[in-house]
Amino acid sequence: MKILGTIILALVLWMPAYSAEEAAPTPGEPDADRYARSVVGLEVTYQMWDEDRPWAKTTPQSRSGSAVLLEGSYLLTDAQMVDHATLIQLATFGRTRPVEPRIVAIDTEVNLALLQVDDPGALEGLEPIALAESTPTTGTLMMARWRRQQLEMAAARITRFEVRRGWGGGVEHAFLYMRTDMAGGGWGEPVFENGALAGVTVSQSEMLGRAVPVEILRGFIERAKAPGPYIGFPALGVMWQTNSDPAVASLLGQEGEPRGILIRQVPWGTSACGVLKPRDLLLELDGQTLDAEGYYHHPRFGRLRFGQHLAENYQLGDQIQVRVLRDRQEQELSMTLRGYPSALDLIPYHRTGQPSYVIAGGLVIRELDVPYLRTWGKDWDKNGPIGLLHYFSVSREGQAPDSRRKIILMMILPSAYNAGYQYSRDDVIDSINGRPVDSITDVVAAFNEPMDGFHVLELSPGSSRRQIVLDAAAFDSATEAILEEYGIPAALHISEQPPADGDGDCPGDF
Fold first, then answer.
1. 174 and 213 in contact (C-beta within 8 Å)?
2. 8 Å CB contact between 350 and 108
């Protein structure tokens, strides 16, 4: 008996210890099995365009992320996950399957993508998850993903809601910020509250995650499932500043404490184009009073910037009323809501497809956009060419009918024909042969009309030189020889969605 007691005691001491909390899960503890049947992985092969060689693509690469299953065999993830994808494969229960989900809709403005699996049998064993009624404003949520064939779950403590621009355009909406225990997140991980989907992560810096809340998820899903082409979210689209200086407010005719925001510029193609004017004080947005910093009172999230009100509650084409102080008088105005895609920017933040470019006489000319600026690395906004960064900082949103893009001389492919100019690069072109150019189409047209037997390029102030002059007679033959010498397949590409050449007042998207 003494020996048996010793053995039993040893077994008791060997067994791992569990706290009472671990032994008896508290009510409401996340159901790991439930999430395991709703969270899937995505294995994506993608291929970007080479921004330094716009006629070619880069080496294919791969990325891994997460998605969540919704009713109807739909998968919800972030747009960056499937950006430039050439192959998307589904991973269920941690294992990659020979299943290729189909992209239903991508909205880079809100950084969301909806996919669908056409074969329901491929989703055997999985269960769709429901959307939460609303995003909680306090407390702890749960993030989940598959990693190394195991379900990884982590707490995500709500810290704040903040309105920011989306990843790829001008739509501003609320983001949910969370302190999470999950390392390396921000790739479409679903965020749950009591077994329902409350958000989808789109970025993470160290342990601070950022997610699109369910209020925006619901609007995206409804738009993506609607028949016909996808129609995105509305945005005001103005450039504005806070109305914090009482002297300025008084100058504009406002009495008492400053309120509303000061409109600085109304870009072409936006909701406000033709309605608001520079020096207007925007006081109300369809009944929502704006303070001097652009905040209104959201019924759940408290003080938020006004972009959330439009993104959450309206569709493109809706008419709203705005109240402004103009010429020292308050006025009620009607506005039709439009989208504000990145293509409406003078220097677009996001681009789909191949860059627009032309190679002429060895000069590689392209449209300036942020994908090109990103070739200067993570800190491109500090390390890029100062001349290009100046235009980005000062007039990124300043597109107009006669100024649709900044055209740059990206580089020169050296040859005897262009000798002496080969070190010129990253200079903004103001005109070619006396014609202002604001699209690659304009560049091609300008080269068809030489000046007295020469092609003359005028570069902007601050460039490495102010003028480039080339012999027009040898221009075409030199271009052909340079293309052959450098093995370039095509001298010209114009985007499928070139900037609109407009006579209309505000040809935006609605």
1. yes
2. yes
In terms of DSSP H, where are the helices of 300-369? 307-313
Sign of CA dihedral 436, 439, 440, 442: negative
Strand partners, 366: 357, 408
Instruction: Assign 408 to helix, strand or coil.
Output: strand
CATH of domain 239-336: 2.30.42.10
Answer CATH for 29-230 from 2.40.10.120, 3.40.50.720, 3.40.50.300, 2.40.50.100: 2.40.10.120
CA angle 238, 244, 248 (to 5 degrees): 85
Q: Per-residue pLDDT tens for 39-98?
A: 999 999 999 999 999 999 999 999 999 999 999 999 999 999 999 999 999 999 989 888
DSSP string, 190-226: EEEETTEEEEEEEEEETTEEEEEEHHHHHHHHHHHHS
Q: Are 181 and 155 in contact (CB under 8 A)?
A: yes
For residue range 158-200, list pLDDT tens digits in order: 999 999 988 877 899 999 999 999 999 999 999 999 999 999 9
Regarding pTM above 0.90, the answer is no
